[in-house]
């Protein structure tokens, strides 16, 4: 019996030992980065280089075209931007737009938070959000401007109404998708701690879904910003003072195309600052710090 058992036992493989080889011929595995490599590893430097390159291409093309009415040079636009900044009230116009934008954006975020909290807490809320987003998300916010003027009159309330529409649906969709993507392990951990309702949302769902929420905030910001400028182009002056859209419209009527480009450049600069200062800071202190995003 012992011989049969021994015959069925697997063979014992002999241990294999290898001596470490000589790697001296490979040379240094680590080396210090050169000055050029250190510079190009900085994201801000690379992005500034792209902007400078675009400015050079702009200057070359406008010089070749030689038509200031259709496409002014970068130098002329920069001069117009400086003049409008110093004596043309560009900063005041920009602040009028930003002030309205912040009010509409904050209201849209608050309503989206209520809808998505209701959607993840109850079946009725989930059906409500799905139905409303399917109905209103494809509807352009600027298309509601005539109704907003009819309902709220000529003032900030009309602009805030269309901004809420621009912010609410993309943010709600992204936030709800992020909540639905939270793993069951985290959900069960929250339930084991007895979390329900608002506590369950704020302590479990929001931190786990924050990359999607942050993406929704970015998309909502972009939608709101371009909706506001378009609305100001059509809507005109709000509460006695026009914003950036009205600045662009006025200078277009006066055929000051370099000032039109300066206004468009201001819209772009504000967008770059919000994206690379505000949202990037939030990313670095949250999802990047938590290891949820590269």
What this model shows, in words?
The chain has 294 residues and is mostly helical. It folds into 2 domains: 38-67; 69-285, MetI-like fold. Helices cover 73% and strands 0% of the residues. The protein is built from 12 helices and no strands. Helix 5 crosses helix 6 (123-136), helix 5 (90-121) crosses helix 8 and helix 7 (145-152) crosses helix 8 (156-180). The protein starts with a helix and ends in a 9-residue tail after the last helix.
- Which architecture of the largest domain per CATH? Orthogonal Bundle
What are the low-pLDDT stretches, counting only 5+ consecutive residues below 50? none
Question: Any idea what the shape is?
Answer: flat
How far the N terminus sits from the C terminus, by CA atoms, comes to: 62 Å
Largest sheet, strands/sense/barrel: none
- Residues in helices, as a percent range: over 70%
- The rounded Rg comes to 29 Å
The strand count comes to: 0
Tell me the strand percentage band: under 5%
Whole-number tally of structural domains:
2
**On the 0-100 scale, what is the average pLDDT?**
83
CATH superfamily of the largest domain: MetI-like
Indicate the CATH topology of the largest domain: MetI-like fold
Order of helices and strands: HHHHHHHHHHHH
Secondary-structure-derived class = mainly alpha
Top-tier CATH class of the largest domain = Mainly Alpha
- Enumerate how many helices there are, as a single number: 12
């Amino acid at each position: 019996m012992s011989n049969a058992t021994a015959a069925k036992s697997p063979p014992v493989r002999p241990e294999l030992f290898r001596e470490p080889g000589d790697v001296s011929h490979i040379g240094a595995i680590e080396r210090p980065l050169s000055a050029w490599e250190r510079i190009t590893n900085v994201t801000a430097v690379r992005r500034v280089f792209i902007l400078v390159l675009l400015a050079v291409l702009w200057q070359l093309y406008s010089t070749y075209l030689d038509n200031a009415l259709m496409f002014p040079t970068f130098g002329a636009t920069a001069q117009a931007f400086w003049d409008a900044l110093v004596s043309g009230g560009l900063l005041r116009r920009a602040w009028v737009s930003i002030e309205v934008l912040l009010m509409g954006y904050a209201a849209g975020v608050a309503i989206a938070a209520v809808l998505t909290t209701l959607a993840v807490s109850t079946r009725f809320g989930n059906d409500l959000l799905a139905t409303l987003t399917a109905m209103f998300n494809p509807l352009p916010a600027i298309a509601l401007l005539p109704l907003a003027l009819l309902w709220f009159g000529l003032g900030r309330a009309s602009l805030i109404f269309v901004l809420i529409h621009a912010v609410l649906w993309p943010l709600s969709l992204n936030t709800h998708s992020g909540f639905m993507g939270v793993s069951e392990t985290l959900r069960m951990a929250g339930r084991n701690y007895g979390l329900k309702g608002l506590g369950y949302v704020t302590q479990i769902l929001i931190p786990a879904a924050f990359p999607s929420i942050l993406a929704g905030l970015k998309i909502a910001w972009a939608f709101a910003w371009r909706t506001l400028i378009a609305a100001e182009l059509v809507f005109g002056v709000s509460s006695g003072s026009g914003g950036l859209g009205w600045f662009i419209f006025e200078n277009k009527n006066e055929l000051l195309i370099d000032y039109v480009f300066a206004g468009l450049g201001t819209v772009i600069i504000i967008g770059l600052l919000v994206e690379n200062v505000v949202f990037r800071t939030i990313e670095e202190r949250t999802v990047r710090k938590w290891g949820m995003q590269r």
